[in-house]
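Weekly structure sync, notes
Attendees: PL, DS, HV (note-taker this week)

Item 1: DUF3892 domain-containing protein
DS walked through the input record. Source organism listed as Qipengyuania spongiae. Sequence as pasted into the shared doc:
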Amino acid sequence: MADVQVTCINKQPRDNTHEGITHLGGSGWHWTRKQVIDSIEAKTNTFYTMVAGNRGNIGVVNGPNGKYLRTYADGKWNDNLLSLPECAG
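Item 1 (cont.): predicted structure, written out as C-alpha cells:
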C-alpha cells in the first residue's frame, strides 16, 4: 500500500450546481475521483494533503448525492481539497 500526497485537483465546470471534484493528482499521477474512492475503499492506497505544513488524511464520505472525498485533520472533516490548485493539462 502506498501513502500518496494529493497536490492538485480538477473540478466540474463552474456553471454546475455543485462544485465537485472530478480528478485528483500529484507527482506523476492523475486519477478520477472514482479511482481514488475505489482505492481507499479497497485499502490499496491512502491519500493525504499537506496544507500549511499540516497533514490532512483523505477519506470517503457518503453524502446525499453519493460518495465523495474529504480531508480529515485535527479531529474534524474539512474541505482542504477544494483549496488545492487545478491540475495542469
